[in-house]
Amino acid sequence: MAKINPKKTAMREQTPQERIKNFKEVPYGYSEGDAVLEAQRCLKCKKPTCIAGCPVEIDIPGFISKIAEKDFKNAIKILKKKNVLPAICGRVCPQEDQCEKECVLVKKMESVGIGRLERFAADWEAASGIVDIPEKHPATGKKVAVVGSGPAGLVFAGDLVQLGHEVTLFEALHKAGGVLVYGIPEFRLPKAIVQREVEYIEKLGVKLVTSFVVGNTQTVDELLQEHDAVFIGTGAGLPWFMNLPGENFSGIYSANEYLVRSNLMKAYLFPEYDTPIVRGKRVATIGGGNVAMDSARTAFRLGAEKSMIIYRRSKTEMPARIEEIHHAEEEGIHFEFLTLPVKYYGDENGWVKEMECLRMELGEPDASGRRRPITLPNSEFRISVDTVVVAIGQSPNPLIPQTTPDLQIAKHGNIIADEKTGKTTKKGVFAGGDIVTGAATVILAMGAGRIAARACDEYLKTGIW
Amino acid sequence: MFTILTKKELAPGIKLFEFDAPLIARKAKPGQFVVLRINETGERIPLTIADTKKDKGILVIVVQEVGKSTKLLGTLNQNDSIIDLIGPLGKPSEIEKYGTVACIGGGVGTPEIYPVARALKEKGNKVVSIVGARSKNLLIMEQEMKSVSDELYITTDDGTYGKKGLVTSELKRLIDEGVKIDCIFAVGPVIMMKAVCDTTRPYNIKTIVSLNPIMLDATGMCGVCRVDVGGETKFACVDGPEFDGHKVDFDLLTKRLRTYLKEEKESVDLFNKQSCGCGCKGN
Fold first, then answer.
1. pLDDT the model gives residue B280
2. How many Å apart are CA A260 and CA A254, to the nearest integer?
3. What percent of chain B has pLDDT over 90?
4. Does B88 contact A276 at a Cβ distance shorter than 8 Å?
5. Per the domain annotation, does B100 fall within a domain?
6. Which residues contact A129 (CB under 8 A, 6 or more apart)?
7. How confident is the model at residue A130 (pLDDT cuts 50, 70, 90)?
8. HSE (side-chain half, CA atoms, 13 Å) at A303
9. Across the interface, which of B27, B41, B224 has its CB nearest the CB of A272?
């Protein structure tokens, strides 16, 4: 057997100098040759361990061996059996914590680039222009309403419509896609790709209704009068702030606001687009997750001279994908680890100008298993800033829980739903994704959508709750 | 798409639009608002609902042309349409039987206070209304307010109509004359609402104001509309827009409203150039 290249086949990408001046996607993706080369690194294990690492159980060696054989058409077919959004997952899944972590190669070298291959297959299909529309089951006459068009809702809707049910997908914002559209920036997930996937779901027969706020325009109970079941996938939309003195100064954004302005409203194209955004010169983003990386990298692209990440733990505890941290470092983002903001100072017009911070050290592990940060006494120092982005997390959006009295809610505002069925405490109502788990990943939300779809189909057929 | 059924100019730069929006009209309650987006490149702007005709599925809004979006909206006519109309949003006004209620409207706050006054009247309250405008020609909805008020007082800044002065001087006069007011609803410019609260604070009269901070999604997900109420940060879009005026930090609201002053001016200048009518498109 030929010797295996210990490193993943590199994916060409825009240089850091070039890309911080534009919003275009950073990696170009594999060429056919690159993809085949990378696919050949797969050992096609008799008992593959990678599949267990995938929340939707894609036949990973199956699709990769098709790529190795240059049979791209069947590669995408295998992928789509388990994953209706491969172009998205190939880009935003934390593969290093999932499938690639379980790859047998990892013990000796870099894993197979499963995510990169998934992305390649999906993009190949899109470029070919031939998208297979699978055959649908005969119409059942049952109607289902899906609330929220993020990853959970898209998968749920796509699955149920193929099973012959009539599905309407309601979205509160004016564009479908949820976090894929308002949250993840263009340079990481081009909106044309999300649009393509949404159109695919519509081609399957799902009716999409945007600018419809369930809870306000109609309540869940009203939807239930016209539908046999409802799925709630409204995500974790409520931004957290830190309740620090001065946090309401102008120039201090939640990550949601910063990213919605830039991504959904295209504020980076102001004044061609009407929505403005502050183009700060010294931008501090607080947090260590993907949303923080997205915000800090957006700041550069909006013209920041210095873009900083302020994180209270150290690099190893950062929850962001490795690739995002790597890209952020390459682009020149300045990291202030073990640092906790405690107070803001503003000017006479109410604009933020300085942030006071404390230094931290790591103590014993906490409930999350990560070492708990402890403040160091008398370590105060100030950072000069004109824009701050608070990216420390989100909790579930309360609109639906507030307007659906008999839906049971857990302590943090999450909807209580059975893990194996997505069933809530209200008959006919299913839920999945961040609204149930709290802020997590795209692929987990998709997995929850799939599980709920299966249970919902069963409920629609039998009427048994 | 939402079609404009009727457009009326109420005063220079103040226009009324009736939209065909049956779903929103059916649900809308006094005090709530909508978000609209005119076209694909447009921003999302919040506007308070001025009225509904539920049987006809009509939603009424009144707009003062100040920024680019409101100016652009002002150029649209009957049968034109906008791409998004979202709502009803925010919590409705607390319509209860208070006794005697003063409803105070200033400028384009008047169309916003009108449905509140009507609902309060229907609930059996005695409604005493004070409506203020800069000048006679900017006074709007006088007849509508008259029809839902037991007493109506008008003020203009320049004295061209009604009493010369501000709404607060009329309010102060009523209080000093011994009119027992149990609750006040005030909607108008920030400076007016602040002045009303300053007037009523010594008398400890419950004063409810409707706040108009910058909004984006207006469904609770961005937090740009955060306001300080009694030392606590609230999101006006989902926790409001109405709050106990005595607890509101109006200075913070004023400062936050100025966040995008520079960009707003740039947008308006560009719009004025491009619509200058001579066909030069700003060149």
1. 53
2. 10
3. 94
4. no
5. yes
6. none
7. confident
8. 10
9. B41
Sheet architecture: strand order including B2-11? B81-82, B2-11, B14-20, B58-64, B45-53, B33-37, B84-89
> What is the token pair recorded at B164?
């010369």
Strand partners for B152: B129
Q: What is d(CA A217, CA B219) in angstroms, rounded to the nearest whole number?
A: 12
Domain harbouring B102, CATH code: 3.40.50.80
ipTM: 0.93
Assess if residue B270 is contained within a domain. Answer: no
Q: Within this chain, do residues B246 and B193 fall inside the same structural domain, yes or no?
A: no
Q: Do B86 and A211 touch (CB under 8 A)?
A: yes
Nearest CA in chain B to A249: B256
pLDDT in tens, A34-68: 999 999 999 999 999 999 999 888 999 999 999 99
How much is the average pLDDT of A181-186?
94
Question: Can you tell me whether residue A444 is helix, strand or coil?
Answer: helix
pLDDT, one tens digit per residue, over B1-53 is 999 999 999 999 999 999 999 999 999 999 999 999 999 999 999 998 999 99
The residue type at A116: R
pLDDT of residue A378: 94
Q: Are residues B82 and B157 in the same domain?
A: no
Domain that holds residue B221: 211-261
Q: Domain count of chain B? A: 3
- Other C-beta atoms within 10 Å of A435: how many? 28
Task: State whether B75 and B101 are in the same domain.
Answer: no
Question: Quick one: CA torsion of B27, B30, B32, B34, rounded to 10 degrees?
Answer: 70
**Can you state the angle between helices B190-200 and B250-257, rounded to 10 degrees?**
180
Q: What residues contact A169, with CB distance under 8 A and at least 6 apart? A: A146, A149, A153, A154, A157, A176, A201, A206, A207, A208, A209
Does A213 sit within 8 Å of B219, measured CB to CB? yes
How far apart are alpha carbons B44 and B49 in whole angstroms?
15
Min Cα distance B263 → chain A (Å) is 6
Choice among A45-59, A121-135, A241-255 with the minimum mean pLDDT: A121-135
B201 and B145 belong to one structural domain: yes
Residue B81 has pLDDT above 50, yes or no: yes
Phi, psi angles (nearest 5°) of residue A275: -80, 125
**pLDDT for residue A339 is more than 50:** yes
Q: B277: how many CB neighbours lie within 10 A of its CB? A: 5
Residues ≥6 apart with Cβ < 8 Å to A135:
none
Query: If you write DSSP's letter for every residue of A322-346 in order, what string do you get?
Result: HHHHHHHHHTTPEEE-SEEEEEEEE
Contact B267 A266 (CB under 8 A): no
To the nearest whole Å, the CA of A349 is away from the closest chain B CA by 6
